[in-house]
Amino acid sequence: MPKRPSRAEVRVIETAADIREGARALRRRCPVMRRVHDLVGDPPLRRTTSGFVGLAQVVVSQQLSIASAGAIWIRTAAAVDPFDAPTLLAQETATLKGVGLSHGKVRTLRAVAEAVVAGALDLETPQADDDLRAALLAITGIGPWTADIYTMFCLGHADGFAAGDLALQVAAERAFGLDGRPDAAALMEIAERWRPWRGVAARLLWSFYARRDPLP
């Protein structure tokens, strides 16, 4: 089993070169990843902004298509200008729901903003993954998927992995020829072989899921 990196060794995906490095490592380590990479090539970088804005975008995108999430985010950002925690808290609930946000997402965004204003959630200072994850999960409406996606795409942690993501589970089922879709715990066990590049493995699996082609 690959050695878990120490906090000082945590890699950050910043450029396409980092994706290529991770893909090469995965090809050497895992025959299934090699075949997936042969089919889909290098996956997209998929980096986005961090901080309150980045986390809010992840919350908005929950359980929505890319197109729907993008449209709602544009309207949300226009309604909350500048987009920061105090300005969001100053908005009426009706205003936020009027841009297409569900009641649950309005509640979550307010909870995140309240935690930021109170100092209970620091999204600007680098901190250990476990500490940040615990702080995120303590907020109403923030679950493992949101915390993992924020870590992967907003912070760019190379070993971030969203085991609860349905598309990743379906892609792993197809890639490994499993009899059924693995749950989050089973997928985490599978993903151990991909450390410290689980974030690149996830990107490869998402690309494989989108293609719908069988492995060569």
- Highest-level CATH class of the largest domain: Mainly Alpha
Structural domains: how many: 2
Helix and strand sequence: HHHHHHHHHHHH
How much helicity do the residues have?
Answer: 55-70%
Query: How much of the residues is beta strand, in percent?
Result: under 5%
pLDDT < 50 stretches: 1-8
Provide a quick synopsis of the model:
This protein is an all-alpha fold and 216 residues long.
Report on the architecture of this protein.
The radius of gyration is 18 Å and the shape is globular. It has two domains: 7-46 and 160-211, Endonuclease Iii, domain 2 (Orthogonal Bundle); 51-154, Hypothetical protein, domain 2 (Endonuclease III, domain 1, Orthogonal Bundle). Helix 3 (51-61) packs across helix 9 (144-154). It contains twelve helices and no strands. By secondary structure, it is mostly helical.
List keywords for this structure.
disordered N terminus, Endonuclease Iii, domain 2, Endonuclease III, domain 1, 0% strand, 216 residues
Tell me the layout of helices and strands.
Layout: H1 16-29, H2 31-40, H3 51-61, H4 66-79, H5 85-89, H6 93-98, H7 103-118, H8 129-137, H9 144-154, H10 166-176, H11 184-191, H12 198-211
Helix pairs in contact: 1-2, 2-12, 3-7, 3-9, 8-9, 10-12
